[in-house]
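During the second half of the funding period, the structural biology subgroup turned its attention to how the target accommodates small molecules. The most pressing case was adenosine monophosphate, which had performed well in the primary screen but for which no bound structure existed. We therefore specified the complex as follows and requested a full 3D prediction, including the ligand pose.
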Amino acid sequence: MDRIIGIDLGTTFSAVAYMSDEGAQLIPNALGDALTPSVVGIDADGRILVGRSAKELQVTQPDRSIGVFKRYMGTDWKIELGQHSFTPEKLSSLVLKSLKQDAEAHFGEPVQSAVITVPAYFNEHQRKATIRAGEIAGLKVQRILNEPTAAAIAYGWHSADEEKIIVVLDLGGGTFDVSVVELFEGTLEVRASSGETFLGGEDFTSTLAARVLEQHGMVFEQTETRHPQLISRLRQECEQAKRRLSKQEETIIRVPNEKGELSENSRASTVTREQFQKWTNHILNRIEMPIRRALGDAKVKLGDIDELILVGGATRMPIVIERATELFGRSPKSRLNPDEVVALGAAVQAGLFARDKSVEDLVVTDVSPFTLGIATSRELAGELQTNFFMPIINRNTPIPTSRVDRVSTLHANQTSIDVKIYQGEGRKIEDNLFLGEFKASGIPRGAAGQEVDIRFTYDLNGVLEVEATIVATKKRITHVITRHAKGLSASEVTQAVAEMAALKTHPRDEAVNRFLIRRAERLYQELPLTERRILDNMIVGLEEALELRDPAAIESNRTALESFLNHFDTEDHNEETYGDD
Ligand code: AMP
């Protein structure tokens, strides 16, 4: 059996892990970090950058680099970077490819298969887009695993024989999920999941940035259009400030000028944790409804819960921990790093596929977090209304599942019915997400009331197949939602693979140097003139050495530049971004 890796494809960071003899282990990237920023950029030479170098590029050239694209998975959203147009699938595929390469470098052999995690509340289109992204990256996606389920696996796989109920709250960069999980007799059973796809740490950062701008008489949206560099840099400042506020009571946030530059004379605001809490309270309130829904669906009372687990970087915020403690009347557990736990759980799931002996006794079951059904008609006061939603698979049904329901024709001699498929909890279809449609034709002519069976089959990846059978003739029409999902078709995937392969990417061993140059270019913007000149010479030195492929010169230029940066760079990026546990 192939080696299978576990990947957490996060909104802000991604991570890759595998199952070793000692249990699940993270694989470091080329820079030695366990977390790779989910950011993709394209430099002036048209080369693709992924991770920290792309994040650095984002600050100096926001139009050449992009993050937080996971939010647009499964939609028609596109972005131009350099000469190329990218869909969220293609951008995600570049992150996945980079993680795949890190794993290959780690093992010294090719890796072809992966378990990839998604928010539990990701819909059909988003899941399918994630599978496509994996395919474009050259990975066989063995399983799409829900992030909170992965976290519960990481916490529970050692002790799945104990009987207990765990609640997982997962607040990442862009999404919030809650899952109620039961452990018993070697089984890890998700009893219910709920969530929101547009609620995460990025919203806290955006609100902080908007409020700080407001204090200086500016409006976020207008400023974003007019001065993208200012916003890009301010967001970075606010991101760091938000993290500082997780540890300290107040912090200073500097506002960059229109070119995105900061100096000692920059305008600044002092923000207290209390103020930040007030500004973002409306965002935090939104976690309560999905929690109530998940507990209700799982038929679990607060007193039944044995463990509360917080996952996702944004749960480091004291306001999130306080609110969770308040809501559940208990302190959360945080034995594992909230940024890493999802990738570790994915690795355990990968181990289950590879029949790794350390996990062979574990059984994991999950649920469909949404209700799935079709549009149906009802007669109201003699009038036919066609916009009602008829659930076929109710939310939080254990998967895989297959359910059938019968519908019938409304008119005499009606030879076909339109099967319109929706997902959601609304009574009317307009409140739900349209997934696709097809025609079930070939119904024999006759009186109204000819019957058609509609079968919904929902697999372990959360991918839906719908089948209509005309009862009288046994004729079957099958429809897999993916064919109509927004995003890429199978042939488009092949094309995308070719397109992505044609993009120039930096060789892996160059990633470190490219990152260093990006970091230097960011610092360049802030330094006084004399230091700028020195720095410029050093960058040129390293670039020349890289151009000439001279290993000794590369090494010496790199070391010199590194020590210069460490001396001048005010914020130790490594510390700020990764070491705040
Ligand atoms: P994830 O998608 O799980 O990696 O979560 C990333 C989110 O967590 C981002 O929005 C980060 O800003 C946020 N985050 C990470 N560390 C902290 C921290 N120390 N304090 C506040 N937010 C954090």
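Two results from this model are relevant to the next phase. DSSP finds 16 helices and 28 strands in the chain. The first strand starts at residue 4 and ends at 9.
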